Amino acid sequence: MAQPLVVLQDVNKHFGDLHVLKSIDLSVDKGEVVIVIGPSGSGKSTMCRTINRLETIESGTITIDGKPLPEEGKDLAQLRADVGMVFQSFNLFAHKTILDNVTLGPIKVRKKSKSQAEKDAMALLERVGVQEQAHKYPAQLSGGQQQRVAIARSLAMEPKVMLFDEPTSALDPEMINEVLDVMVGLAKDGMTMIVITHEMGFARKAANRVVFMDDGQIVEQATPQEFFTNPRSARAKDFLAKILTH
Known about the structure:
The protein is α/β, with parallel strands linked by helices. Helices cover 39% and strands 24% of the residues. It has one domain (6-244): Rossmann fold (3-Layer(aba) Sandwich), CATH 3.40.50.300.
């Protein structure tokens, strides 16, 4: 059996007196799409951020591709290159063109030549449907386009796994699908993905597994079919009743 690509074992995290992650155990296989859902404040984003060490943990272990997360320095930069992250806000460099935003990491971190980085970036921008915007600046793009650029920028680093922290929550409703469509395409291409989202339609369509978190714990995990039709815990039933009726 191949080992899982991402493994969290007995992970604990506090913010002051608040115990935000309580003995989290989670394994994600290569090529698997895991959707993490749950009420606000359940620890979903914090868990996501520990996987590329944007948040430190007090106890437990996290490994990526069999290696423990590095503390800092060069190894941490390498980890961040291997673990792509797409946030709610697009975090693009406002003073750089779209093309420059996407080529910056590959040139600086992956040491690609400018010409190769630009060629690869154009292919990625085409893949996410914004190749015509390559020479514009972020402020000239819609939110949906900017988020697709943010995905292309992550992909440009050729990551082993992609983390998405509510990537559509800051978007206008009509722009959500254009971003989710790109993510569905990535899932079909075999990208390992951990996605925090409130988009249940996307979870049904793209997930191999749904992980439900509440109060800093993983309460249950199942296939989308099982989870949405027959949740086992009272907390998941209550959560689904609230969100699926709207």
